[in-house]
Amino acid sequence: MFCVVHPFHPGCGRRFVIVTIRSNWGEELLYYRDQAGRLVSIPARWTDRVAADPLLIVSAGRSAFRVQDLLELVRLMDAMGKEGGDER
Q1: Which of 4, 28, 54, 66 has its CB 3.0 to 4.6 Å from that of 11, i.e. a possible disulfide?
Q2: How many other CB atoms are found less than 10 A from the CB of residue 18?
Q3: 46: DSSP letter
């Protein structure tokens, strides 16, 4: 059994029986049957079968920086790279 934890998945909060688990292109997929009985898959990282990313837990959806400030930082770093001959 697994529970869908991805907030935008239509099955969020629901539990399903795992039919099989496969790895496709390095990503673990859980296969289950939907309400119509069709075999469908979901990335394991969208379920409670994979531990949540520690950064997401600590940040709780917040960011320490404003987008405007990060964009200004990128602009300044680009300018510094051009002035210094891009010696990184």
Answers
A1: 4
A2: 15
A3: G
b/e per residue 26-60 (b: at least 16 CB within 10 A): eeebbebeeeeeeeeebebbbbebeeeeeeeeeee
Position 87 scores a pLDDT of 58
Q: Which two tokens stand for residue 27?
A: 């990503």
Q: DSSP readout, 13-40? A: T-EE---EEEEETTEEEEEEE-TTS-EE
The string of pLDDT tens digits covering residues 51-85 is 877 877 888 778 778 888 899 999 999 999 887 66
Please report, for the chain, the start and end positions of each structural domain, with discontinuous segments joined by +.
1-51, 53-88
